[in-house]
UniProtKB/TrEMBL annotation:
Region (Disordered) residue spans: 257-310
Record's keyword terms, sorted: DNA damage, DNA recombination, DNA repair, DNA-binding
Gene that this polypeptide is encoded by: ku
Record function comment: With LigD forms a non-homologous end joining (NHEJ) DNA repair enzyme, which repairs dsDNA breaks with reduced fidelity. Binds linear dsDNA with 5'- and 3'- overhangs but not closed circular dsDNA nor ssDNA. Recruits and stimulates the ligase activity of LigD.
Name recorded for this polypeptide: Non-homologous end joining protein Ku
Family according to the record: Belongs to the prokaryotic Ku family.
Taxonomy of the source species: Bacteria, Bacillati, Actinomycetota, Actinomycetes, Kitasatosporales
PANTHER family, sorted: NON-HOMOLOGOUS END JOINING PROTEIN KU
Annotated Low complexity bias: 278-297
Subunit structure: Homodimer. Interacts with LigD.
Domain Ku: 52-181
One GO term (biological process): double-strand break repair via nonhomologous end joining
Originating species: Embleya scabrispora
CDD domains the record matches: KU_like (cd00789)
Compositionally biased spans, kind Basic residues: 298-310
Amino acid sequence: MRSSWKGAITFGLVSIPVQLFPATEEHNVSLHQVHETDGGRIRLKRYCELEEREVPYKEIAKAYQAPDGRQAVLTDADMAELPLPSKKVIDVLAFVGDDEIDPLMLSKAYYLQTATPAAAKPYVLLREALTRAGKSAVTKITLRTRESLALLRVHDDILILQTMLWPDEVRAADGLAPEGTFDIRPQELKMATSLMDTLSEDFDIQSLHDDYKEALDSLVVARLEGAEPVEAGEEGAATPDNVVDLMAALTASVEAANRSHGRAAPAKKGTPRKSAAKKTSAGGSSGKGKSAATAKKAAAKKTTRKRTSA
């Protein structure tokens, strides 16, 4: 695995040479565009609409178009001269509690490895200090041509750097939450909590798979071998746009979750009608339960009398 960046973590007078390695990778199936009738590859050419000709990559620059139509052309030389003080530095700005940064702001993650043998001790010292204090470091770093905020934190026994959005890049959620007052019954809240508990037991994230990718892989293999693709399973039931009986839906969900975990559904509490039936049955003169209970009481009374007389 090749490093994607080399530089140093700096805080105060301490400098730790490190290199970054991407911590994640996506396993997407790479597809390209072709002409459906004959399979010919579709190529996208860099075409200048003013000169009406294809231009080489070396003649291409970036530009910004203002709302009034004016255009500012920015060359590679212009971009290279922009001030980027954190170009080869992970500059620590502040140390914060592990729960002070909203996960909504976090983006791509990188592993940090020491770049020199001498960096090992300060690397471990920083790792242990962050762990003991329960803190992470908010930093600045330049990756490629853009300066970004990043969170430096401990993951197992390694330091990781996770790029962050700038505060003004996170949209406000104004007007998106349900409006009004809702009467949440205790039974509904209890059943929802029960469902959460059931779905939280024995969770193993390694058991989850990308069903769409697996189906696409199978389709590609079938096409390469000239075979008919395996028919996909039926799509799940459509999600209802309204919930008529929330309690019934929660109850059914809990029962389904219990069945999937190999457990019987929780026993339902008896209703007053069932209780009355039990009392009637117990009160019958020929009931076996009553006879046994009467015999036990009689035996207990005899024993008490004997002990008293003794």
